[in-house]
Design goal:
Layout: E1 9-14, H1 22-36, E2 40-45, H2 74-83, E3 86-94, E4 97-98, H3 100-108, E5 124-131, H4 136-139, H5 141-155, E6 158-166, H6 177-191
Parallel strand pairs: 1-2, 1-3, 3-5, 5-6
Antiparallel strand pairs: 3-4
Helix pairs in contact: 1-6
Amino acid sequence: MTEKHKPRKILVLYCSPRKKGNSAALAHQIVKGAQSAGATVESVYLNGMNISPCQACYACRKKDSNGCAIDDDMQTIYPKLVEYDSWVIASPVYWFTMSAQAKLFMDRCFALLAYANNPFAGKRIGIAMSYGDSDPFNSGCVNALRTFQDSFNYVGAEIVGMIYGNGEEPGEIKLNADLMERAEELGKKLASQ
């Protein structure tokens, strides 16, 4: 199999305490689309993992660094972030922005540059967000989306698509057939060359 036709590898980062919540439902639909297009998908549930906040020690920036100095579960995620072609970040809106689990993950990505020469370059990112309000502005969803846009633009990664919608009760978002279809299409897009 040539490099051009090698199946894409997608890492899905679930950033909600609810495994059957609305952001998870969107991510599951993205996975469905990606797998139907031939991608290999691995999922990581951040909630319950031991991921500490960045300590601003800058060990990851020192000459001959071995990466992040914090010995926690993020160490198991770093190699996957480098290896996988695409990432999907699925988060609910908590207090007008992304969940704490998503923010911890994003902050710890600061150390990723120590693991490879700009491992962000060429990464294809999908964002899936859910919120309780009927409006992405009033809910604060746009705050999280803007953070993702600014962060990934800064490091040279490409956001392929952002899927977001409202649902108060866990799994309620699945009733939005149009949104579920768009999530599946995002998965196919992430899997495409």
